[in-house]
Specification:
heterodimer, A: 604 residues, alpha+beta, Beta-Lactamase, 5-stranded antiparallel beta sheet, 19 helices, rod-shaped, B: 131 residues, alpha/beta, Rossmann fold
Chain lengths: 604, 131
């Protein structure tokens, strides 16, 4: 373009085409010339003064920059606020320059303003965003130094401007291997990674870090913006959740109970290894399927269908894959929320080991009882044998020495001990065969009265008082009257013997019956010779042998057997020289049904 | 004879007591007998026997009570005890504590009594005491 042409353009076109509001102001502050941009914003000047147009004022503004340039002839730049044609306030960047006359006077100034309202708004918004965004924001230079950091960052890491980011974030002395900012500097793209840092208070902190170039353009960029979100709480919650899940999984996986979980459609969601073993189903074979019929006991069906509630079955049966029926204890819970079925959790305890142990325990008790009986019998028989041996010794030495009194004594010993053997054999037979029981609901005190009446007179002749103690008659109970009669007769007979062998005269035997809570209790107490500590331990095996020539030897064993057949037990206390108390304790809920006694008719 | 050793039999079975007494007397011992532990202790204190033949399982205080009392009684505690019982030695130990909570007796004779063995034990124990 030839020089004169652009000079003409500058002179004639620039004024109108420059993207500025341009006005010329005289010393009276009247706007004497304005370009189209100016007029479009502020309207035609029409000889008005600048303060009338820009500020809607009647007088010159305080601190007027135009006035200052008139005074000192210096150009000025400042920001100002004015009102546009519609009265809206706007921010302007204002350049003021003097227009000098040849004589050096300043008859006019030229004012060029640019509307920076939008820019200011953006700047404010950026500032607010930078400071208030809920994450840590820093601006890093290529030296990895923090150039700027937002308020949130400064709170967490302190005033760190000029420090290197790895020092600030991680207290490291050199760059991190996986630094996202470095990668952004290298390739100019956004990178995100998870980092673990240390706060100014030394707390380990987890971050999700995103880095982005601070500006884009042909000439590249010199800074990276790094935004870090603190996910420490999230990670802690995740860890907690993981731990809780691991614990729950371990509990479910290692539970000895079978655990089955079903969804709302009844399909199996959870089937732990114990459940697989119980039902004989291979791992994973049933997950997602509907449990086969019979897998759960029928009693549980209604609970499942109702969709809500608990179910506890102490004794139920489930069917395995091979059709075997297994006794279980079931605890089930069907869940429902807002009317919607969510599924069910079922816990099954295999009762086979417990049942087996129970059977083994009963067998062991039976064997022990047999062993005790045999030991007791052996002890008794040995005493009788010694008596027989004694009789033979007397006969032998009597014959040998010609002593008739020894023959008589020996003969008597033989007779007595042979009789003992016979009685023992008869009682053993009766003991082992048992009898057909007859259970009837009856008043227990009736048997007590009968026993007292049976023994009272004979005992009193031996200095023993047999008394009845029934202050309050107990409730009627289903009993085999003859069996209870036998038990009480045994105990009262023993008690009378114990009195005879003791020192006390008169000596008392008391027989009573009463309700103690849920138990029916018969009690026989005596003031006889009692048993000392060691002999008490042998009471049910050897007690009969302490009765010298009187007893048949099986009374206590028989009493225990008959009592056990009624679901009861025998307890006693005894002190040598003080006496004994024997108690037959019958829990009422275990008493037999009228008609039969379980386990009778054979040896227990 | 004045210098015959005195043996106390504590036994609740009269036939057994009578048998043991006769057999030991026939062997030249003096014998006294008691039918229970209390009477046995009274007799022991009065007569200071050289040896006691003791049954264990008796009504009232047992033979073990007698044994314990005897051990606690200064002039009698050295008296040798020969236990004569229907229990086995294993039962007497495990269930009554003989040889465990109470010292082993000088001899343990199980019923029915092997008479020559009893007499031999008694003689040996008395001979050992004299020497």
């Amino acid at each position: 373009m030839p020089a004169p042409m652009y000079e003409r353009w500058l002179r004639e076109e620039l004024f109108e085409k420059a993207p500025l509001n341009i006005s010329v102001i005289d010393r009276e502050y009247r706007i004497v010339a304005a370009n189209r941009n100016f007029e479009s914003v502020f309207g035609k000047p029409d000889g008005r003064r600048c303060y009338e147009i820009h500020m809607r004022r009647d007088a010159l503004c305080e601190d007027c920059a135009v006035a200052k340039t008139f005074a000192d002839g210096k150009p000025r730049v400042n920001e100002g606020t004015g009102l546009d044609l519609d009265g809206r306030p706007a921010h302007y960047l204002v350049h003021i320059a003097p227009i000098m006359a040849e004589d050096g006077s300043i008859p006019y100034v030229i004012e060029m303003s640019t509307d920076i309202t939008e820019m200011r708004r953006l700047k404010l918004e950026y500032q607010t965003l930078f400071e208030q965004v809920p994450c840590y924001v820093t601006v890093l230079n290529r030296d990895m130094r923090v150039v700027r950091a937002n308020e949130r960052f400064r709170e967490k890491f302190g005033e760190v401007s000029g420090q290197r980011c790895f020092r600030v974030f991680k207290r490291r002395d050199r760059e991190c291997e996986d630094c996202p900012a470095k990668r952004t500097f290298e390739d100019g793209t956004i990178h995100t990674s998870e980092q673990v840092g240390i706060s100014r208070h030394g707390e380990v902190t987890n971050y999700i870090v995103t880095t982005a170039p601070a500006s884009r353009g042909e000439g590249g960029f010199s800074h990276v913006i790094e935004m870090a979100i603190d996910v420490t709480k999230l990670r802690e919650a995740e860890q907690e959740l993981k731990r809780a899940n691991a614990l729950r999984e371990a509990l479910v996986e290692h539970s000895t109970d079978a655990i089955v979980g079903t969804g709302p459609d009844g399909r199996v969601l959870l089937f732990n290894p114990s459940a697989e073993r119980l039902f004989g189903i291979p791992p994973g074979a049933i997950t997602g399927k509907t449990p086969p019929t019979g897998m759960f006991p029928p009693e549980f069906g209604p609970v499942l269908e109702a969709g809500a509630g608990d179910c506890l079955l102490d004794s139920a049966t489930v069917r395995t894959a091979s059709g075997e029926e297994i006794p279980v204890r079931l605890s089930g819970h069907a869940m429902k929320k807002d009317g919607e079925a969510l599924g069910a959790a079922v816990f099954l305890q295999d009762l086979r080991p417990i049942r087996r142990l129970e059977r083994e325990k009963i067998d062991a008790e039976r064997l022990a009882a047999v062993g005790q009986t045999v030991a007791g019998l052996a002890h008794g028989i040995k005493n009788i044998l010694t008596g027989l041996e004694g009789g033979m010794y007397f006969l032998r030495t009597g014959i040998k020495g010609g002593k008739k009194e020894r023959l008589d004594e020996g003969w008597g010993m033989l007779e007595r001990n042979i009789e003992k053997v016979s009685v023992l054999a008869r009682n053993l037979l009766a003991f082992s065969k048992g009898r057909v029981p007859k259970v009837e609901v009856m008043a227990p005190e009736v048997i007590v009265s009968e026993i007292v009446a049976l023994y009272r007179d004979a005992a009193s002749q031996q200095g023993v008082a047999v008394e009845c103690a029934v202050p309050v008659p107990p409730a009627p109970a289903p009993l085999d009257a003859e069996a209870i009669h036998t038990c009480l007769a045994n105990l009262v007979s023993n008690a009378i013997d114990a009195c005879r062998m003791g020192q006390r005269r008169p000596c008392r035997v008391t027989l009573g019956v009463r309700d103690e809570g849920e138990d029916l209790v018969f009690e026989v107490s005596d003031e006889g010779c009692g048993m000392d500590q060691e002999i008490r331990r042998l009471a049910f095996t050897n007690f009969f042998t302490t009765k010298g020539t009187g007893g048949t030897g099986l009374g206590l064993l028989q009493t225990r057997k008959l009592t056990q057949e009624h679901g009861g037990r025998v307890e006693f206390t005894s002190e040598a020289g003080t006496g004994s108390v024997f108690r037959l304790i019958f829990p009422r809920h275990r008493l037999p049904e009228p008609g039969t006694v379980e386990g009778s008719g054979g040896q227990s | 004879m004045v210098d015959q050793p005195l043996i106390l039999i504590v036994e609740d079975e009269p036939d057994v007591a009578r048998y043991l007494a006769a057999a030991l007397e026939d062997e030249g011992f003096s014998v006294i007998a008691a039918a229970n532990a209390e009477a046995g202790l009274d007799l022991a204190e009065q007569r200071r026997p050289d040896l006691v033949c003791l049954d264990l399982v008796m009504p009232g205080p047992s033979g073990l009570s007698f044994y314990r009392e005897l051990l606690a009684c200064e002039p009698l505690c050295a008296t040798p005890i020969v236990v004569v019982t229907g229990l086995t030695r294993a039962d007497a130990r495990s269930r009554l504590g003989l040889g465990d909570t109470l010292p082993e007796p000088a001899a343990f004779i199980e019923k029915p009594v092997d008479l020559p063995a009893l007499v031999k034990s008694v003689r040996e124990i008395l001979a050992a005491r004299r020497s």
